[in-house]
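Q: Protein A?
A:
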Amino acid sequence: MLNLITPLILTFNEAPNLARTLAQLFWARDITIIDSFSSDETLSIVSGFPQARIFQRKFDSFAGQCNFGLRETGITSEWVLSLDADYLITDEMIEELASLNPNADTDGFRAGFTYCIEGRRLRSGLYPPVTVLFRRLRAIYVDDGHSHRVNVKGSVRNLKSRILHDDRKPLSRWFQSQQRYMALEAKKIVSADVESLGIADRIRRLRLIAPLAVLFYCLIVRGGVLDGWAGFFYAFQRMMAELLLSLYLIEQDFNAATAPRRQFADGSRQKAIEGER
């Protein structure tokens, strides 16, 4: 089965993560990387892995990058393992991938995640399961708020082993990413029908509850207090992300409330100009 899988990775300035991720893909005959013109050591790291092919493409969306990788880079394998640069495949998952024997109706496999802070595994991670392995010709990516997801035609099964999510980029980079992600997430939540939203996004629509709720959930319900400072660090990160989202949602409330007044003022000014003419 391993000979039928091509890992596909998106990168942009992923030097703190990429070498560890690629090292665990030693079994892959071909690794396809879609890079958004990194300016750090990402490209030189890739050059150290002879089975890795790199393609540079200006970023438009995560789905756009992934679909380009699936369709325009010459991947010929039946299966694709789609990874972020901070996804670390464990030895247990390699063994499970090697032993897979999917039937004709199975077009994808979903993996759960164990979140890590500087290599320390947390019990309190909130990262949801993701379809990471799928038949290339039966899959297409779509954007979903700040993120993206793959749609496959057939059934999706669950993998038993988990992927480690271990992002070691500096905190300043995390803040920059979250500002961009949560602005997109706010637009998604505001524009969607309430009935189409999951329970988490419905709570987020309340503006004030989500930041405190996620802090309590990570530390107490999921036992993050038992992870020491790493658990507190992660819980505060999640609270800060939810607080940014709440601020963007409240900003949209302000914009919606002031839009009629701005239109009225603009209309009055236009009438005054026409009257002077």
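Q: Protein B?
A:
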Amino acid sequence: MAIRAEHLTFVYNQGTALEQKALDDVSFEIPDGQFVGVIGHTGSGKSTMIQHLNGLVKPTSGKIYYNGEDIYGEGYSLKTLRSKVGLVFQYPEHQLFEVDVISDVCYGPRNLGLSPEEARQRAEEALRLVGMKEKYWQQSPFELSGGQKRRVAIAGVLAMNPEVLILDEPTAGLDPKGRDEILDQVRELHEKKGMTILLVSHSMEDMARYAQRLLVMNHGRKAFDGTPKEIFEHYKELESMGLAAPQVTYIAHALRERGLAVEEDITTVEEARDAILRLFGKE
């Protein structure tokens, strides 16, 4: 089991007039190699939750285990944990600072104490993994497009050789092409390297397309936990939380209400296409 959270509670400004409970008794397990989506309205606790998973934030109460070890246990190395559980923040390109792309991606492995040669090797491998061509490696990261900057920032985390990759809204602010490219790269990391992925997103379409499982956060608590199809069956409850199902799910329900025999659990455009073709005997 890669990550286990037990009764996780976190209170901001505890003991003051500004006290606010961001997480309230949240428990879950994430097996090795799973692609998990995390959804919730703004302020639901999802970003606070993922920051606990590599020790950036310490819970007010509760425990986090990584590979069966309590990350706040005596003698546990949080530095080692952060090399194994990589966290990509929203707008990660704001963290780029080196003179060229390759130097920026080398920074993390150098910080781990690797030799310049080893750091360079890690950086080159990471850049290839995210699809950054060699012609960009000597460029300033600030000369790149938004999508390219995002790839470089993700490569900087991958160069640490993590076993778990956590991404907080990695496609925020990107155009549709850039968004698809980033998420396709993340899916490739999951499929080819068997990497455990946690993806925070507001896009229900992306969650249906990429995630194997969804955790739904609401007012600091875990509201639902299941496959995308299981979760989106509760679209009316999701609406009460300020969320929704993918648009195509609503279209499928509307077609059923008009007497067409399409499945209720359609969540992707591809599934809708196939269902409609079947109706007309064109499978």
